[in-house]
């Protein structure tokens, strides 16, 4: 994924704008893909690669802000808005929706290229976080039910002897499960294991025996 060529998607109903931005993007090391409408772009299969979207506000079907709302879960694809007639409410809505930049046409090549670079950097960072989370979930899935119980008790601060008492197993058995669990999770330390569990929303076991979700 890190070697994938970045893609700049351009959605604008003005063919001259599309072609101008295509030429600009292709003058860099990136790919360019252009679309005349929001629905045309949304019908494109999702691709895992660093990317950003240059999106016109006024489109013949969905407007740019509607397209943005439908892409709310795509942190890996920052949006740069462009428009020929910007107004304050639209600008505010776009920025509140997480837009990376908002340009009024005409804009300089240097300015939008700089925005694209920043957006691609953000995309790379988001993809790296997503890949890390997938690896973390995959590691957690390899744990046995008993190892998951040990994990929940360990991150709650219990010692091996206390974990054994709660689970009704010997301290030696707890140590074996704990060592196996740490290896499977690729956790170099207890602090790192706690951080991993927090990211996975795996909560510690409370004093009364219940479990609190880490993402509460």
Characterize the structure shown.
- This protein has 216 residues and is of the alpha/beta class.
- The protein folds into 2 domains: 7-132, Response regulator (Rossmann fold, 3-Layer(aba) Sandwich), CATH 3.40.50.2300; 142-199, Arc Repressor Mutant, subunit A (Orthogonal Bundle).
- It has helices at residues 15-26, 38-42, 64-70, 88-96, 109-141, 145-154, 160-167, 171-185, 190-199; strands spanning 7-11, 31-35, 51-56, 79-83, 101-104.
- A 5-stranded parallel sheet has the order 2-1-3-4-5, with helices on both faces.
- Helix 6 crosses helix 8 and helix 7 packs across helix 8.
Q: What would a concise description of this structure say?
A:
This protein has 216 residues and is of the alpha/beta class. It has helices at 15-26, 38-42, 64-70, 88-96, 109-141, 145-154, 160-167, 171-185, 190-199, and strands spanning 7-11, 31-35, 51-56, 79-83, 101-104.
Structural class: alpha/beta
CATH domain class of the largest domain = Alpha Beta
What is the fourth-level CATH superfamily of the largest domain?
Response regulator
Computed Rg? 24 Å
Based on Cα principal axes, name the global outline: elongated
CATH architecture of the largest domain: 3-Layer(aba) Sandwich
Overall pLDDT: 89
Question: Which strands sit side by side, in order, in the main sheet?
Answer: 2-1-3-4-5
